[in-house]
Amino acid sequence: MCATWPQRSGKPAGNSKISGTGEEIMVKTATFEALLEDAVPDGKGGYIFTLEGKSYTLKDKDEVRGIAESHGYIIIY
């Protein structure tokens, strides 16, 4: 089995592929710090966070972890 992990600074890596069994598996990874950078203040005490084209309103920046996991990301701390 062979894995390729793209090197990208500051953004989710995404789109890594693992092959060797006749099928490809998409592995999406992101650093927690990179995700936090994308949570911007909304001017009302919360944050707007956008991932894969979908925007979320957050009360706390720590909510990005659950959202990224619901999109299938593996979070790297």
Q: If helices are DSSP runs of H or I spanning 4 or more residues, what is the number of helices? A: 2
What class, by secondary structure content? alpha+beta
- Give the topology string: H per helix, E per strand: EEEHEEEHE
Number of domains: 1
Q: Low-confidence parts lasting 5 or more residues at pLDDT below 50?
A: 1-10
Strand order of the largest sheet: 1-2-3-7
Sheet having the most strands: 4 strands, mixed
Inertia-based shape: elongated
Average pLDDT level: 82
Beta-strand share of residues: 35-45%
Cα gyration radius (Å)? 14 Å
- Give the termini separation: 25 Å
Q: Give a count of the beta strands, DSSP E runs of length 2 or more.
A: 7
Helix content: 10-25%
Region (Disordered): 1-20
What characteristics describe this protein?
alpha+beta; four-stranded mixed beta sheet; three-stranded antiparallel beta sheet; 2 helices
Short structural description:
Residues 1-20 are annotated as: Disordered. The protein is α+β, with helices and mostly antiparallel strands. The chain has helices spanning 32-37, 64-70, and strands at 2-3, 16-19, 25-31, 39-41, 47-51, 54-58, 73-76.
What can you see in these coordinates?
This protein is of the alpha+beta class. The protein has one domain. 17% of the residues lie in helices and 39% in strands. The protein is built from two helices and seven strands, in the order βββαβββαβ. It has helices at residues 32-37, 64-70; strands spanning 2-3, 16-19, 25-31, 39-41, 47-51, 54-58, 73-76. The strands form two sheets. It has a four-stranded mixed beta sheet. The longest helix is centred in the last third of the chain and has 7 residues, at 64-70. The model is unreliable at 1-10 (pLDDT under 50).
